[in-house]
Amino acid sequence: MLRHLMYKIKSTGPITVAEYMKEVLTNPAKGYYVYRDMLGEKGDFITSPEISQIFGELLGIWFISEWMATGKSTAFQLVELGPGRGTLVGDILRVFTQLGSVLKNCDISVHLVEVSQKLSEIQALTLTEEKVPLERNAGSPVYMKGVTKSGIPISWYRDLHDVPKGYSFYLAHEFFDVLPVHKFQKTPQGWREVFVDIDPQVSDKLRFVLAPSATPAEAFIQHDETRDHVEVCPDAGVIIEELSQRIALTGGAALVADYGHDGTKTDTFRGFCDHKLHDVLIAPGTADLTADVDFSYLRRMAQGKVASLGPIKQHTFLKNMGIDVRLKVLLDKSNEPSVRQQLLQGYDMLMNPKKMGERFNFFALLPHQRLQGGRYQRNARQSKPFASVVAGFSELAWQ
Ligand code: SAH
What pLDDT score does 397 carry? Predict the structure, then answer.
């Protein structure tokens, strides 16, 4: 990867941080995400669904709660962006099976948006009974397709644009933080973009430099910006716009969970290798690269098209979803000390404000009508106006 980047910079000049991130993470031949399983204790970082089954179960309840609140449509698509090892969607589908009597007349399909060949293979192993072959039809945007263990059709895509535009519930957990960011530094001459260049002093070493003049991505910086260093993520904006358009058109909802801020932080670009911080410019391709999600930007991109809720802290969201009750049920069911200890440790990791409880946030996109308490247009069977209470963002109330 370093040789590839050096060659690129030598031939066309320094590259933006966004281009650097994109190449390092998702280059089809050598990208960090493409050919390895970096998740879990043995990998570089661990995520909430890998820590506790309760996380996915509560998210499953959230989708069912929204489905019920908006008139129990006869069909929906569950769409996940960046599904990792498939653990989260697996836990959600288990809840769907357990609540089969509620969902029995609903036609569900699963759609995964994933660029990683390695992770898509692992997802298929987790979610389906057998190895799923690659699709032969080169013209189709679906690159794998199968049936989940509970008999639900499942398809894989490389891009959200390719997912059918039906009534859908969208999920993005630790997805937006891997999207490429442009970085800017305020200087006496105005905003200057940070680029990655070859260090002239040391061969085989990269360094950051400032662009000598203004660059196009500056258009993404707010006119009244007061920080002296900002990160902007145009790809996140494109995805939020697409989700917003889809939800405004067909209904449904999107749930985004990630670490981030509300337009206040400055330099958050960092690397992780073996659960430790890693210099982003050293040994590119061997460590995860990430930047905090700017939720204020996501909200701006959704404005006018759909309503947004949050960001609220993971601790509050999971509490509102009933994590304490679920933990108690699982503890009561198990006599095995190691299982009980694992459940308690998982709970602490997800909820402790010093661990993931306050670092992670939940953010949702919903059709405007959902919060206005008006009648839901799509479903004539619904006679009552639906509640404006959205589970997780306030205490869960079953209707
Ligand atoms: N949601 C999972 C995994 C998070 S890691 C969890 O919480 O455990 C980020 C995921 O996004 C990986 O599956 C990675 O392969 C995928 N990914 C990264 N960039 C992507 C892109 N541009 N499009 C689609 N998926 C992407």
Answer: 53
CB of 19 within 6 A of ligand 1: the answer is: no
Q: What is the mean pLDDT of residues 112-134?
A: 90
**What average pLDDT does the segment 58-64 reach?**
98
Ligand 1 pocket residue status of 114, Cβ below 6 Å = yes
Q: How far is CA 380 from the centre of its chain?
A: 33
What are the tokens at 72?
């129990």
Q: How far is CA 356 from CA 51, 58, 154, 258, 260, in A?
A: 11, 16, 30, 10, 12
Owner of token pair 């985004």: 256
Q: What is the pLDDT of residue 203?
A: 84
- Give the integer Cα–Cα distance in Å for 25 and 92: 27
For strand 107-113 and strand 75-81, is the pairing parallel, antiparallel, or unpaired? parallel
Other CB atoms within a 10 A radius of the CB of residue 218 amount to 16
**Ligand 1 pocket, residue 357 CB under 6 Å:** no
Closest by alpha carbon to 75, among 95, 105, 101, 98? 105
Please identify, by atom number, the ligand 1 atom nearest to the C-alpha of residue 172.
1
The stretch 331-351 carries a mean pLDDT of 96
Instruction: List, as one string, the DSSP characters of 189-216.
Output: TEEEEEEEEE-SSSTT-EEEEE-SS--G
Q: Check residue 242 and give its pLDDT.
A: 98
- The minimum-distance atom of ligand 1 relative to the CA of 48 is 7
Over range 220-231, report the average pLDDT: 96
Ligand 1 atom closest to 82 (CA): 11
| Cα–Cα distance measured from residue 121 to residue 251, given in angstroms and rounded to the nearest whole number | 31
Task: Read off the pTM.
Answer: 0.95
